[in-house]
Design brief:
Two copies of one chain form a homodimer.
Chain A lengths: L2 H15 L4 H10 L1 H10 L5 H13 L2 H14 L2 E4 L24 H5 L6 E4 L4 H5 L2 E5 L6 H16 L3 E4 L5 H11 L4 E5 L12 H10 L1 E4 L9 H14 L2 E4 L7 H11 L4 E4 L7 H12 L4 E2 L3 H8 L22 H8 L10 H8 L3 H13 L3 E4 L2 E4 L1 H4 L4
Parallel strand pairs in A: 3-4, 3-7, 4-5, 5-6, 7-8, 8-9
Antiparallel strand pairs in A: 1-2, 2-6, 10-11
Helix pairs in contact in A: 1-3, 1-5, 2-3, 8-9, 8-14, 9-10, 11-12, 15-17, 16-17
Chain lengths: 395, 395
Amino acid sequence: MSARADQLARIALNWLLEPGHLIGWEMVQAYGAPEALWRILNDPAGHSATRNTATARLAAGDPLQTAEQLLTRAGEIGARLVVPGDPEWPHQVDDLRTIDLRSSRERVDRDTRPPLCLWVRGQLPLAASLARSVAVVGARAATEYGQRMASEIGFDLASRGWTVVSGGAFGIDGAAHRAALRAGGVTVAFLACGVDRPYPAGNTALFEQIAGAGLLVTEWPPGAEPLRHRFLVRNRLIAAVTRGTVVVEAAARSGAIQTLGRAYGITGRTTMVVPGPVGSAMSVGCHQALRHQPGTRLVTGAADIIEEVGAIGESLAPLPRGPERDRDALDTESARLLEAFPTGNREVTADHLSASTGIDPRTTLRRLALLTELGFVTARDGGYTLNPRRGSPRR
Amino acid sequence: MSARADQLARIALNWLLEPGHLIGWEMVQAYGAPEALWRILNDPAGHSATRNTATARLAAGDPLQTAEQLLTRAGEIGARLVVPGDPEWPHQVDDLRTIDLRSSRERVDRDTRPPLCLWVRGQLPLAASLARSVAVVGARAATEYGQRMASEIGFDLASRGWTVVSGGAFGIDGAAHRAALRAGGVTVAFLACGVDRPYPAGNTALFEQIAGAGLLVTEWPPGAEPLRHRFLVRNRLIAAVTRGTVVVEAAARSGAIQTLGRAYGITGRTTMVVPGPVGSAMSVGCHQALRHQPGTRLVTGAADIIEEVGAIGESLAPLPRGPERDRDALDTESARLLEAFPTGNREVTADHLSASTGIDPRTTLRRLALLTELGFVTARDGGYTLNPRRGSPRR
């Protein structure tokens, strides 16, 4: 089958069945995406479980035609599709196939499978950005204490080269994303809706910043609404793509605790919580998880977290690189900064680059972090140099 | 040997060698207390380790004569001596003989052995009072949050029939003792000095209350000063006599954390900490213990603590009773209250008893708790009845 046919079939299946669909995913494993789609569309006697789910969607339009439209729409909004087999595919999501089904009472936990495809907005390579990542999640109605802890943790993790993954929500999620951006680090928001309409709307400016310096990722196609159920399905991705999940603040039985439960069910993922004052409703979920979920670890900051998720010595290892991306794919600011580097192997400071390009210092630092991540430049003590093979302007 | 000779020899050995002395205790196990004392006094070539410790003390006076004086002094201040073999002896302290020596870097942890004798002030039977007990300990420089948590925990444990054991210090210890007293429950303070000079002096009123409604206990004879080293030796007793130790607040490497470490080294003792806000120096020790001491449990209140230390169903079991104490041994207020009970099996309220005896309501409640504990009366919903065999006035 062609890559294009596989892409379109995956988009169509995802649209018909909703992400994580158990039978849909199993059929794709058995037959490949195009044949799985064909069987579902043409064998009404068979896959009743999938037909039931898909009936309403089928009435709305032809799946493959819809898939074509969604791909076009994605191109218009600067988003791309990533599917298994692409160099950018984060293979760790496939661990969702082996999640311990018996460990959860929630149907959404038991019945959801790995994603068929991911929509991505932002310039970093997805797999490499997630290779050394930690989820920092928690309550929307976070306390000041919780937001301060999320900021500290997000900033410190990002400063030490760890990608901060979260859900883009108000409260803890937003504080973690913002702090990672302030640190000039990498942050990735996993959404429960289309990348063109990230939710909540109140975080629109934040989402734009994340798209600029990090990544917005979702299983739902452009235009998809943030339905309530989707957040729980989305949470399994946050748990699966990261090495560990930290809940900073959470009420009992909250979404963040569900994410922690998913992480617990996936081999090799560390579950962590930040303690808080007894009596704070926003720490109840954290304390309960620590009491009742075996293996959950108390952490008080980035150092503790890295101790938990990083193998010994590994926290000093360089960030894994994704497939090299062409200079043409860079955003305008990054490209301007790259042009502004002196020739030869001479070092230059961020201040100098900011002055010579007219890009404000904060954005300059963020773009330089991106260029470093992508392998165009190397960061040294207080300065940057071009990498000879990648960074030099084409001549 | 006579009981009196054993008592005097134990007092003398304790005075010569300091409580917990490794060789002294081993010699008592091997030869009995009188012969152990005789050997130490008469065989300078042998027990050099004990002689070195004892030299200064020997210059101060004859050990057996000193022991006689100390017993007399104890009688004057209303204290009694309890030794192994007495019905009151809390056998769980003997578990200190099997403490895992390798687990600690502290010499005081490695080298201290079970007590040879205990000085007790207060009217409750010692062993019975400690049979269902929890240690609630922590920082002297506790925060308001820590003191509130210690009060809640002390009150709730005492209300549910658990004895609250602590060290009588300012901060967490004092808050736990006071709350147990407020609840009309049993509280026991283990001191690092003589029962006639409990330390700190600022808690003198509290110590008097504890002596009235609970117990003051120490290994040090009347007149002994609260030397710094003694607190660490004392801490092992707090860990050993209780089913578990809860640290409410503690700085890193504090005395409370040392107590927790002792509890960790004794088979069957549960180690627990109360979490607090990250960033509070007084919660650092708690969080570190939770991260680095295997098996340490987070608890957020008395319900969690009872879940940890009480076997299933057992938390409803009646408080074990010590040897019956004669009515003559009761304090005047308790005796007056007992006389004020109506004849027959009729129930009477605390208010009624307070009014008819002229004893203030708070003291009445505390004395009734004592009388209940001693088996003279039975507490029912809001009222009390005399127990036919014990409580009835002699006729």
